[in-house]
TrEMBL record:
It comes from the Bacteria. Residues 38-113 form the Mce/MlaD domain. Residues 151-167 have a biased composition (Basic and acidic residues). This is ABC transporter-binding protein. It comes from Holospora obtusa F1. Keywords: Membrane, Transmembrane, Transmembrane helix. The chain crosses the membrane at residues 12-29. Residues 151-184 are annotated as: Disordered. InterPro entries: Mce/MlaD, MlaD_Phospholipid_Transporter.
Length: 184
């Protein structure tokens, strides 16, 4: 019975050692990126209002990656967005990035518009052709609060137009008076 017990313990010990070695190998392979499905890129924006970590990255409406990190670049006061996409997707060097909403009030996503360049970007490169999100609050503010410069310009143009119209009427009336006087 002792021999059987020792043999059982040896088999269990060997099995546990095997599991530990397989686990270590698995984590080493993953950490070195041997089986990596994704590559990392960056995009630089003036603002990233509403974009969150984990937000989807989409090309033509298809999710191809996610946002990994948002960081403020103190040198030029821009926001650097770190994101990953599927390794099999190659980005042309003239690719542009936009932050947009999936719906009017939906979460923000990072949308990539692939360019037409034959030259492809390498992983870790930065996309500089970007557009920050349009904020509904800003649009409503522009619609509801008149722009003083615009209002003054419109007011000036309106007065000039009225002045021209009144001059034309006066000129038209004087021409009519001249015609009436000459016919008499």
């Amino acid at each position: 019975m002792k021999v059987r017990s020792q043999r059982f313990e040896t088999v269990i010990g060997a099995f546990m050692l095997f599991l530990v070695l397989v686990s270590i190998a698995f984590f080493l392979i993953r950490s070195r990126g041997i089986d990596k499905k994704y590559v990392t890129f960056y995009a630089e924006f003036d603002a990233v209002d509403g974009l969150r970590l984990g937000a989807p990255v989409k090309i033509n409406g298809v999710t191809v990656g996610s946002v990994l990190k948002l960081s403020l670049d103190p040198e030029n006061v821009s926001v650097k967005v770190k994101f990953n996409i599927l390794k099999k997707i190659e980005l042309p060097e003239d690719t542009s990035a936009f932050i947009t909403g999936e719906s009017l009030f939906g979460e923000k996503i990072l949308k990539l518009d692939l360019g037409a360049s034959e030259i492809k970007m390498r992983p870790e490169e930065i996309i500089y052709q970007t557009q920050a999100p349009l904020m509904i609050e800003d649009l409503l503010y522009k619609l509801l609060v008149p722009d003083e410069k615009k209002s003054k310009k419109e007011e000036k143009e309106s007065k000039e137009s009225e002045h021209k119209n009144s001059n034309q009427k006066e000129n038209g009336n004087s021409i009519q008076k001249e015609e009436i006087e000459s016919s008499n």
